[in-house]
Design a protein that fits this description.
With about 475 residues, the protein is α/β, with parallel strands linked by helices. The protein is built from 17 helices and 16 strands. The chain binds ligand F0G.
Length: about 475
């Protein structure tokens, strides 16, 4: 058998962006000024930025050159038709409405599919749909399998799967018409970038069809999910990635996409659907909220870059590099004994702060404390996905509520950092872990007017 010596990045670097190095004293001051909230730091004070994988992609030579062809006409521009063709190729659905970013698509989708007093089921809803659903008076509920809600559970191939028994229970308790939509987020961002299997997508679709419930896929990370299906699910190893994505979307009626992730672009979103009635509705909503039908808030240049990016992201060479880089970080952290969600996800590594700082109780924000330590020691920025982001107040009693997961997400931007950068993260976390007993928790001193959005603006004190 031929041996493969071509296991490095499937690209070379043509343009570089210098990054600033800072001292610990400088970062200590920056943290104080930001009230210990990573969202309030200046990006230029960050050495390796792992806050998000959204809109942070490095574009290819093909994308940059396509941008020069961008056609800026308002109606019927050439760039739209290129984007439409790429989206049809990847999603296998006929109707394409661009939006300015994913949340624009979420907003329009929620107006149509979320209904007051009815349940909107998801594996785990992303914040922007969740917020829209609540504003509309719908009841968003997460029905991911139990293993997906336990950061210490053993590795399992598809921790993003929906547990249909939980969905059935809602129908049994609240009646056959109590659910207005089921939304499958691929991969599942909130519990570790964990994939959803084709078998689960199909089973959810059959269940939904039997109960007359529409299925929507939130497809921000559709290519990463397809790669996990290809490499983990029997019967898919020899399939082309786009055959797999088209099969995934054959089981839904509509997809929304933040193209800032697997679209490999810095801004943009999509609605793709086979429901003509919803397509017409989305055109009208786009005209009033986003932009005309053939641009939806994107410039011709943006649509050109996305048309190319969607195709680049759905190739084996790219995905093998991408998923293996994230796995490299996960494997190295595991070697050092750092507790993470396992297996490694598609777009980042999620450190389990409950096990990292077992002596810090959840109301003292252990994951946020870890974010602060990582920035202070190394200038590396990650993001809290725990008690601050997902905690809240009980609507009836006003008592604080706390989420099942208490994680720090280390998001890995696409085609941006080298493994040397990832090694800095490993070294810093190893150091912090070695003196974990010395850390104390944090106190929330400011949370802004809307609890659900408090993580963006919150202020903390160190205890
Ligand atoms: N859906 C998912 C699954 C997402 O992860 C995001 C954004 C959105 C929708 C909204 O898209 O940002 O383009 O408006 N996630 C980013 C993150 C912000 O850091 O995970 P957007």
């Amino acid at each position: 058998m031929e041996r493969n010596f071509q296991h490095a990045e499937p690209f070379r670097i043509k343009v570089v962006e210098p990054i600033k190095k800072t001292t610990r004293a400088y970062r200590t001051e920056a943290l104080k000024e930001a009230q210990y909230n990573a969202f309030r730091l200046k990006a230029e004070d960050v050495y390796v930025d792992c806050l998000t994988d959204s809109g942070t992609t490095a574009m290819s030579t093909e994308q940059w050159s396509a941008m020069m062809l961008g056609d800026e006409s308002y109606a019927g521009c050439k760039s739209f038709y290129k984007l439409e063709a790429s989206a049809q190729e990847v999603f296998g659905m006929p109707y394409v409405q661009p939006t300015h970013q994913g949340r624009g698509a979420d907003f329009i989708m929620a107006q149509y599919y979320a209904k007051p007093g009815k349940y909107a089921i998801g594996n785990m809803h992303f914040d922007t749909f969740h917020g829209n659903a609540e504003i509309l008076g719908a009841i968003p509920v997460d029905c991911v399998i139990d293993a997906g809600l336990d950061a210490a559970s053993p590795a399992e191939d598809f921790k993003g799967n929906i547990d249909l028994n939980k969905v059935q229970k809602i129908l049994d308790e609240h009646g056959p018409d109590s659910i207005s939509v089921i939304i499958i987020t691929v991969t599942c961002n909130n519990n570790g970038g964990q994939p959803v299997s084709m078998a689960n997508i199909k089973a959810v679709s059959e269940f939904a069809q039997a109960h007359n419930i529409p299925v929507v896929i939130d497809s921000a990370r559709l290519a990463e999910n397809a790669w996990f299906i290809k490499t983990r699910e029997p019967g898919y190893a020899d399939k082309d990635i786009r055959e797999i994505t088209r099969e995934m979307f054959s089981y839904c009626e509509t997809a929304t996409m933040s193209s800032k992730k697997d679209g490999l672009v810095n801004i943009g979103g999509l609605i793709v659907t086979r429901n003509h009635d919803f397509y017409l509705y989305s055109n009208v909503q786009a005209i009033v909220h986003e932009g005309f039908i053939t641009y939806g808030g994107q410039s011709g240049r943006d649509m050109e870059a996305l048309a190319v990016g969607l195709l680049e992201a759905t190739t084996d060479d790219y995905l093998e590099y991408r998923i293996n880089q994230v796995k490299y970080l996960g494997d190295r952290l595991k070697e050092k004994g750092i507790p993470c969600v396992e297996p490694s996800g598609g777009h980042g590594i999620y450190v389990d702060a409950r096990r990292f700082f077992p002596h810090i109780p959840q109301p003292e924000f252990p994951a946020q404390r870890l974010v602060v330590a990582l920035y202070q020691e190394a200038g590396i920025r990650a993001v809290e996905m725990g008690g601050c982001a997902f905690g809240g107040k009980d609507p009836v009693t006003g008592e604080p509520t706390w989420p099942a997961l208490e994680l720090m997400r280390i998001s890995v931007s696409r085609r941006v950092y080298t493994n040397n950068h990832l090694d800095c993260i490993v070294d810093a976390l190893e150091y912090i872990y070695s003196k974990r007993d010395e850390y104390r928790g944090m106190k929330l001193i400011y949370e802004g007017p809307i609890t659900a959005l408090r993580h963006f603006t919150a202020g903390f004190e160190l205890l």
